[in-house]
Each structure stands twice: as structure tokens, then as C-alpha cells.
User: Fold this.
Amino acid sequence: MSLRQAVAAALKQNPDLTLVRLDEEKARQAVRVARDPFSPKLMVGSGLAYSNGFPMSIEGSAPSIVQANVSEDLFNRPQSFAVAEARENAHAAQLGTAAKQEEVAYRIASLYLDAERAARVRDLACQDAESLQTVLEAVQAQVQEGRALPLAEKQANLNLARARELADDLEADQDTAETALATALGLTPADRVRPIADEQTALPVPASEDEVVRKALESSKELRRLESQIAAKGLEIRGQEAARLPRVDLVAQYSMLARYNNYAQFFQRFQRNNVEVGASFQIPLLSGPGVGAQLAQIQSDIAHLRAELTTARDRLTADIQQSFRDVKKADNAAEVARLDLDVAREQVSVFLSQSQEGRATLRQVEEARVAENGKWIAFYDAQYSAQRARWNLLRLSGDLLATLTPTP
Assistant:
């Protein structure tokens, strides 16, 4: 996969993101649960009972052939605030999902860079082993001709064994990195996701650090989520305070009574079909100490969330400032590694020229190539560090998804 393909796959099936989306759906359904008391409910039933003597009630109703009850909240301010709180919680869950998407995208980008680096470094290690094998053969020939000591052959054997061990270790690292990338995409540990060559343009670094900080504070999903949670707690407080207000419920009932019951023996007039429609009024007079205690608990939660919000803002600002420093340091290290690589490549060219003139041996050429491969590894590491630092800066500024998501 290319990097953008990997990010697109992760946004669809990453396990952590799937769990967050389930929580978001649960919060969205909680809004419907909170609104349920304001929806009319109709219950229809029937029963069978033997009556002897004065007609008694069963669960508050006379024995009837068919009975229907309708109930609905007409005025219930605590429940209205509960609905608003549920909506705010659903909004916070949505922001949490968006923040998780940014986190998953950055993790995929980091794992992708790890897998790409492991593949490249392994290839260089295999080239080192081939070069050292050539060196070993050259040293063996020199030993047989008496132009080198047996110790040189043992040293060449040791260098070749180390190179092969390193190549095997890097192959295992490559498998580990590709497996980690596969599981992050929602695949099984038996799968492998291998990075493919992808044209990646250099990521620009914003010139103004203050502008990035301002933009990040405005667009941060984590900060917006904490603010939404504070707003939800404020609605919960209003709901608790509204518990002192009256409550009005719609009540309606219909009953079809049986003629064979002994109502006529005790009542002057019998009516088979009976309907009752009205409203139920409840006025709380004494709410008890629980309401005050709940309000105190909610106030503590709000203070805790505000402290978290302040800490998150300070941490985001500090992280962006540190990210700018990391990008600068990584760029400087990449430039030094590039210059060091240029020197090593030039050294190989010099030895090749001297070899054609008979002034340098094959052993010197191959050893120079091994040194050049080491510089390539350092150059790749510096490049990946610089790229990862830029990805992190994009994540903090809120532009990571826009950069990594494929455009239609």
C-alpha cells in the first residue's frame, strides 16, 4: 500500500477507531432515550378474573376485557435538560471520534515510516554482506599468496558474520514493522502490509509558530471535546435545579368492562365503555439533601474538567513549540547526514578510479562501499526523523488528515 491508501484503510477498519465509533453511536442513541418520556406511549392489555362481592380493582383498575393506557410528559424541565445534556454528550463523542482519527492517522504514518525504513535498511545490510563476502574472498586469496596474515582472514570472516547477523535481525524487524502496520489497519497478525514507492512531496513547515499555535487552539478536537463536556455538566446542573419546578404529564385510559361482572348489584348505573383523559400535576415541596449534594458533585466535575482544559491548552502550546524545534533539529541532522553521504560516495568514486589505474585493491573498494551503505542508513534515519517530525507538527496543527486523506 501507499501511505495514503494505508491511512484510508485505517480510517475505515482500525480497531481502536471502531470502538470509538461504537461509543459515538451509543451517545447518539442516548439522546433518543432521553427524549423518550416526551413521546406518547400506548399500552393495551386484557385479563381474566373472578369477581365475588364488591367489584375491586386490580392494580388500580377495574377488571376489564380490554384496557388501554396512554402516558406522555408534557412539562418536565429536568428531563428537558437531560435531553440537552445527552445531545451535548453526543457532540463530545463526535469530537472524540474526530480526535481519534487524527491519532490513528499519525500512528499509521509512523508505522508506515518504520516499515519503509526497515525494508530499505535491510536491503543495504544485504548489500553489505555481499560486499564483505567479496572482501573475504580477496583476503583469502592474499593469505594463500602470502601477502596477508591469517588474522586478516579471520577478521574478514568476523565482519561477514556480523553483517549477515545484522541482515537477519533487520529482516525480523521488517516483519515486525509490517505486522504492526497490518494490525493497525484492522488485518490479522498473519498479514503483512509492505510500503510501496510513493511520490511524496516535501512537507512545508509553517513560517509562523504563533499562527500555528492559534490555529491549533481553535481547531483542536480534544479542546472542543472538553468544552462540550463542561457545557453538558452545566446543563446537568440546570436539570438538578429544575427538579423544584412542577411536572405535568398526560394521562389517558380506556376500559371495556364485562357485563357479567356484579357491578349492577352495587352501582345504580353500569357503562361498558369508559374513557378518561386528563393531566397529572406534581409539585415537589421538599426535595431532600440529595439535590444539593448532587449539585456539589457536578460543580467538582466542572472544576476538574476546566483544570483539564487549561492543562490541555498549555500542553498543546508547548508541544507545538517543541515540534518546531524538533523539525529544525531533524532538518539539520538530515543535512549533515547528506553531506556525510556525499563524502562517502565520493570516496567510493575515488577508489574505483584508483582501482582502474591499479592503485587501489578490490578490498578497498568493497570496504568503501560498506562504509557508504552505513552512511546511507544514517541518511535514511535522518530523513525519516525529519518526516516524522513534520507529521507530528501537522497532527498538532490539525492538518494531518487533510494532508494524508486521498483527494477524490
The chain has a mean pLDDT of 86. The first strand starts at residue 41 and ends at 45. The longest helix spans residues 77-144. The chain has nine helices and four strands.
